[in-house]
Structure formats: C-alpha cells, structure tokens
Recover the amino acids of this structure.
C-alpha cells in the first residue's frame, strides 16, 4: 500500500495551486492511493544500473542562426489575455500593500 | 468515395470542393446535435477555403494532394482565429493567434478544415466522458462511447461527416477510438509529425496522427502532415516518408510476432479477430511467430506516473495570466488557485495531483525515477523483439466500445482500456489500428500492428492486406 494520507493530498493540492473541497480530498486520497498501489509492481523491481529514459530519442541541442525573425503580434497576443495594460499582461497585486 | 478519390476528382475538375464542403456541412448538421462530435463548425471558413481550391482548379493550378477534402481537427490543435478549447472551461472562448504546422500543411495541400472536434479534457481520458462540453456518442451505437481521447475526430469519420480527421495519441488516443469506431488510426513514430501548435499534454509521448475510413487515405494524410519542422525541436530531421507508394508491398517474407501480452484479458471475440488476422497475414506470405514481451505488463504503471508528471508541468501555464479563464481573487496566488479550481475538471485535477505527487521531494526517485527506468526496459524489450521480427501484432483494445458511465467511477478501470496501446508511446515507436472482425453486439474490433521507429510504410502495407481480406 502506498500509505498516501489525506494531509499529503492536501499538501500536493497546495503545490499544484488547486483548492479541493473536503469531499474531493476524501475521494482523491482513495483514488490516488489506488493508482499508486497499481504502480507498486514497479517498486519491487531491481533496476539498479538501468539508465532512466526521459525521452524516446537521444535529444541533441537544436540551434538556429541568431537572426531576427517575426514573432507573434503583441497586440494579438494581449487581446487574448484576461487583462492587459500598457502592452503588458496585468495581474492582481503580488506584493503586500505599500506602506 | 474515399478521400484519395475525392482529391483526384477535385484536381481533375470533376467535382467542386465547395460541393464536398456543403455535403460535409449537411452531414454534420444531420447528426451533430445527437452525437456531439463538433464543438465548433467553421462553416464560413470551410466554404471560403473550398472556394479557393475551386478557383485554383479553374486557373489550371494544382490545388494539392488533398484538394477539397473535408477534414475534422481535434480541438487541441490550434487554427488561427478558430476557438480552441481542449474541451476545458479554462480555455473556453480562446482563439489562438497562430496555426499548428499540421494545419498549415493541410491548407497547403488543399484540404478543407471543417471545425474542431470533442475530446476528453486536455486529452485525459479514453471515452470523451471527461469533456467539459459533454461526451461524444459512438455513431455505430449512440448508447456507447466512441473511445478517447480523440473520440470526436473518430466519430466524425465513422459518421461520414468528414472522410479524414486528425487526432493526437499520448497513450492510445488515436488507436483506441479508431478501434471502437471501426476506422483506421495511426500513431506515428515520435518526431515524425510536428507538434508545433498541438496543445501539450505529455510532451515526450504526444504525437499527432490520422484517422481515415481506409488504409490508403490514412497513408495519404500522414504523408501530407509528416516531415521535419524547425518549429518543433523534437521533429525528426528528415522529409516525410513515402507511404502511399508502398501500400501494395504486401507482407511476403515478413516475420510478424503475435504478442501474448497484447491479448491478455481481451474479449474472446477480439482474441479471435487477432488470430484470424495472423492467419490472413500468413496466407499472404508472412511468417507469424507467437512471442512474449513480459515488460509490456509494466507499461500502464510507468505511463500513469510519467504522463501525469509531464502534464502537471505542462498545465502549470493555465494560471489566469496570459489566456483563457481568470477568476479574480485577493492576490495573484489566490487568483491562480481560484482560476485553476474553477477551470479544470475532476480528471485533469486528478492527473495534476498525481504528477505533482510523483515529482515532489521524497517521492521523485520511488515513483517518477523508477518509471523512467521501466521506460528504458520497455524500449529495450521492443528493440530485442525487432531484432527477430519486422513487426508485432496484437489487439488494440481489451473490449469493443463500452457503454456510458461503465468506467467513470473507477479511474483505474478506465486507464486499463489503454493497456495495449501505451507501450508504443513509451518507446516512441509506430503503431496503427485497423478494423478487422466483429465482437460483442456486432461492434467492430481493431487489430493493432506495431513496429520500430520509422516503420509506418511496412505497417500500412500489412494493414492493407488485412483490409483487402476483410472487404473481399
């Protein structure tokens, strides 16, 4: 058993910037534990010395000539934003009130 | 009339692209309310694109290899100015400022995009039941799911709304709905088709691919969209392979491995379809050997840590700042939380949670790290198999199309419907599903052909042998 606790699920929700109701916390604790239990078949394998594969191919750096190219139009991009001001994305305050 | 024939006739001026677009619009209008296939139908855009194709023909110009062919796009593919939602409230109303490379290539080839099709939210699901805009119904039996996540695209083709569609396959999301809707679906080699403009779910697994009513159309569409794209740094550095020219290659002299693990737990009728497919391939000159790849059993576990881990990172961008939904709150962190909580559905939240947990301090090595090592084992196991055989054969799905609600209360049961398709994505290789035989309730069953990277021509030629045998 993964031993996943409700408190851990609440902590993960905070990391993921999600607010879960009490019912969702209960449900996710049970469901995530079941999925992690299914993954237990991997836990028992001895994979010492096996290299991890993060990607199907051995990626190499892809570079291009350092020349100016057109990019997306700023106004078109900002038009899709929930809020924009002076050519920038606008967000609610980040810091505390100015003293 | 298949897409290949449509394009030939449009290029010869025998039928008008606008007539094909109007016919497609009529078919969409006739059943879209019942089936919920299209989330957005771009009627004006489609008719304008078709008119441009007809103008080109009238001027004596070549309008392209898919001239006038109506096509449906999964709604996680960007087309400039056309609403793109990923079937999520968090992107509702967003219109992308650019088009995916595959969309540009379709337009260059004269194809006519008709609109955007329903999917499981952010492609997370196997039935379209996680869509924020309601599920799609299977055109063959509306009491059943079309499969997923590309269920809308598969249904569009199965309902003859469009002869072609594009989907994306992260763990089976093209092959599984193709099997459940009785059509052809291809998951190309990772990197063969540019992912630029495909909204990311799990970047190391996602791949765009074709749906079609027959193998020849699937080959033609894949040829049009494949090939290097500098806008995708994981794009293979080579031009599109030649597929249509090899459709008649057959399987004489091929060695094909019938994989026991790709039959384990499948319905009896599906096992029977696969075994009958093996006989047909043998009769066509192939040698079929039964073999075992025990590592495949670990695919589901590895996938359900790797894909959510990548998703938790990719979906961090939906924070209410640059596009899509924003729910205001007292400060920026509270705004992020309020937006994500309101915008994402339960399955997306579940996977973000799972991925965040698997990547968090103290659990990284035990879960994500271990899954990446299993991924290596999976890739090595396939490579060993392909030293002895040219391709592998198995079932696409354990069952035929299932009924609504039968798996929604148990995430693990839903995940198991992708058990045969997931290993290919982990290995970054090629596979396809071709309709072959019938199962429960006389619904179609899919046979899966799997091959190493860049083996699409070989797989399509084998699929053609099965299709020809089935159609007589």
């Amino acid at each position: 058993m993964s031993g996943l606790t409700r408190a851990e699920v609440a902590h993960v929700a905070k990391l993921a910037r999600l607010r879960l109701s009490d019912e969702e916390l209960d449900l996710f604790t049970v469901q995530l534990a079941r999925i992690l239990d299914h993954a237990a078949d991997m836990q028992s394998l001895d994979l010492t010395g096996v290299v991890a594969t993060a990607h199907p191919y051995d990626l190499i750096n892809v570079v291009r000539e350092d020349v100016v190219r057109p990019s997306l139009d700023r106004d078109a991009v900002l038009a899709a934003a929930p809020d924009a001001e002076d050519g920038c994305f606008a967000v609610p305050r980040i810091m505390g009130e100015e003293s | 009339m298949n897409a290949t024939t449509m394009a030939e006739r449009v290029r010869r001026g025998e039928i008008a692209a606008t007539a094909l677009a109007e016919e497609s619009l009529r078919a969409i209008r006739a059943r879209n309310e019942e089936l919920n296939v299209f989330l957005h139908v771009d009627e004006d855009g489609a008719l304008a694109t078709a008119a441009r194709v007809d103008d080109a023909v009238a001027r004596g110009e070549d309008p392209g290899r898919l001239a006038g062919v109506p096509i449906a796009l999964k709604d996680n593919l960007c087309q400039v100015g056309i609403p793109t939602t990923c079937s999520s409230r968090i992107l509702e109303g967003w219109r992308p400022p650019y088009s995916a490379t595959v969309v540009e290539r379709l337009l260059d080839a004269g194809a006519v995009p008709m609109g955007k099709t329903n999917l499981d939210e952010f492609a997370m699901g196997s039935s379209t039941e996680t869509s924020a805009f309601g599920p799609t119904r299977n055109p063959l039996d509306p009491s059943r799911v079309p499969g997923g996540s590309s269920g809308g695209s598969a249904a569009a083709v199965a309902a003859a709304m469009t002869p072609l569609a594009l989907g994306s396959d992260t763990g089976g999301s093209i092959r599984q709905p193709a099997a459940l809707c009785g059509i052809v679906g291809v998951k190309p080699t990772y990197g063969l088709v540019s992912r630029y403009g495909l909204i990311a779910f799990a970047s190391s697994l996602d791949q765009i691919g074709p749906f079609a009513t027959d193998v020849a159309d699937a080959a033609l569409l894949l040829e049009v969209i494949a090939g290097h794209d500098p806008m995708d740094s994981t794009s293979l550095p080579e031009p599109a392979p030649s597929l249509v020219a090899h459709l008649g290659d057959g399987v004489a002299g091929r060695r094909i491995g019938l994989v026991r693990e790709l039959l384990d737990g499948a319905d009896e009728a599906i096992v029977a379809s696969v075994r009958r497919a093996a006989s047909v391939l043998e009769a066509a000159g192939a040698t079929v050997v039964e073999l075992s790849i025990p590592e495949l059993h670990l695919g589901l576990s590895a996938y359900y840590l790797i894909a959510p881990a990548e998703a938790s990172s990719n979906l961090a961008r939906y924070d209410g700042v640059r596009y899509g939904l924003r729910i205001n709150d007292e400060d920026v962190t509270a705004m992020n939380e309020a937006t994500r909580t309101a915008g994402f559905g339960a399955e997306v939240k579940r996977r973000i949670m799972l991925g965040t947990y698997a990547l968090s301090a103290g659990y990284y090595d035990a879960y994500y790290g271990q899954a990446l090592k299993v991924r290596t084992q999976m890739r090595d196991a396939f490579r060993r198999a392909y030293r002895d055989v040219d391709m592998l054969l198995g079932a696409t799905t354990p069952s035929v199309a299932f009924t609504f609600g039968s798996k929604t209360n148990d995430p693990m049961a839903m995940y198991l419907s992708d058990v045969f398709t997931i290993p290919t994505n982990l290995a970054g290789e090629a596979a396809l599903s071709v309709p072959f035989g019938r199962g429960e309730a006389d619904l179609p069953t899919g046979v899966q052909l799997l091959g190493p990277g860049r083996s699409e021509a070989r797989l399509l030629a084998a699929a053609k042998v099965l299709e020809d045998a089935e159609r007589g």
User: Anything to note?
Assistant: The CA atoms of residues 141 and 445 of chain B lie 14 Å apart. The first strand of chain B starts at residue 38 and ends at 41. The first helix of chain B runs from residue 3 to 11.
